[in-house]
Amino acid sequence: MNVKAEGYDNSLHQGAVVEQGSRFAYYGRLILDNVIPILGVFLIWEIYARFFTESQALFPTFTATLKETGRQIAKGLYLKDIGWSLYRIFASMAFGIVIGTFFGLILGYIKAAERWLIPVFQFFISIPGVAVFPIAILWFGLGEKTILGVLAFEASITIAFNTWTGVRSIPLALVNAARSMGMKGFHLYWKILVPAALPMIVTGYRLGFSRAWRVLVAGEMVSAAGYGLGFRIFHAQEFMATELMFAGVVTIGILGLLIERLLLKTIEAYTVERWGMVR
Fold first, then answer.
1. What gap in Å lies between CA 162 and CA 205, rounded to an integer?
2. Continuous segment of H or E residues that includes residue 73
3. What is the number of H-type helices and E-type strands within the chain?
4. Which residues, other chains included, contact 107 with Cβ-Cβ below 8 Å and sequence gap of 6+?
5. What's the alpha-carbon Rg for the chain, to the nearest Å?
C-alpha cells in the first residue's frame, strides 16, 4: 500500500517537473522568436544612423537612444509615463473585454439583436478612434475620462464584432446537438458557445488591444494628459529632443510587443490551443 502511494507521489512529481519544463521551454521559445528579429532591427538602425545619415540630431543612433532612455529612467519621470500609459490601456481593456464579449455573444445568439445592431457596430468600427477624440474632449474636457472612454469604446466595438463573428461561425449542428441533450440558457453559452467561439474571441482581444494601444498614444498627445508616453513624445518634439522622441517610440513598440506576444499569446496558448480549438 505504501509502495503504491510512493509510486503515485513520484509520478505526480515527475508530471509536475515535465509540465514546469514545458512551460519554461514555451516561454524560452517565445522570447527567442521575438527578441532576435527585434535585435536585428536595432542593429540595422544603429549601422544606418551611424554611417549613412547626414545628421544624427535628426536620426539618432540606437545606442544614443538607449542612453537617453537610461537617463530618463534615472530621473524617475519616465517610469511614471510608462505606468500611466499601462494603467490607461489595462483599465480600458478590462472594460472593453467585459462589455465587448457580452454584446458579441448576445448579437451572435439573438437574431433580432443581430439584425438591428450589427449595422450600428459596423458603422462605429469603421470610425478611427482618433477621430472621436475631439468630440470626447468637447464633451468631457481634457482628462482621464476622455482617454479611458475613447479607449474602452474602441476596444469594446472590436471585441464585440469578433465575438459575434466567432459565434456565427459555430456549426448549427453543434448547437442543435447540445440542445437535444437538454442544454439551454447559461449552460449552452458557457459549455458550447464560448469554447467554440474562443479562437475569434481571443483574436478580438488582440485586435482590440492593438487598436486601443494606437489610439492611446494619439490621445495622450492631443489631450495634454500631463503623463504618458504619447504626451512625452509630443512634449519632446517641441524642444527638438529627438533622442527622447525615439526613446518613447521604441518603448511603445516594446511594451506593445510584450503585452501582445507574452500576455495575450499566453492566454491564447492556455485556452484556445490547450483546449484543441486550433493547431
1. 9
2. helix 62-75
3. 12, 0
4. 113, 114, 117, 118, 121, 160, 163, 164, 167
5. 24
pTM value surpassing 0.90? no
183 contacts: CB under 8 Å, gap ≥ 6: 191, 192
Report d(CA 193, CA 191) in Å as an integer.
6
Contacts 24+ apart (CB under 8 A), 235-242: 240/57, 242/57, 242/58, 242/59, 242/60
One-letter amino acid identity for 250?
V
Start-end of H helices in 143-269: 144-168, 172-180, 185-188, 194-222, 229-238, 242-258, 265-268
Worst-scoring range by mean pLDDT, 91-95, 198-202, 232-236? 198-202
Sequence ranges of the domains in the chain = 1-52, 58-273
pLDDT digits (tens, 9 = 90+) for 132-183: 888 888 888 877 888 898 999 999 999 998 988 888 888 778 777 877 887 7
Q: In the numeric block, which cell numbers belong to residue 193?
A: 458557445
Q: 70 CB contacts (<8 Å, ≥6 apart)?
A: none
**CATH assignment of 58-273?**
1.10.3720.10
- Other beta carbons within 10 angstroms of residue 120's beta carbon come to 10
More confident residue, 108 or 162: 162
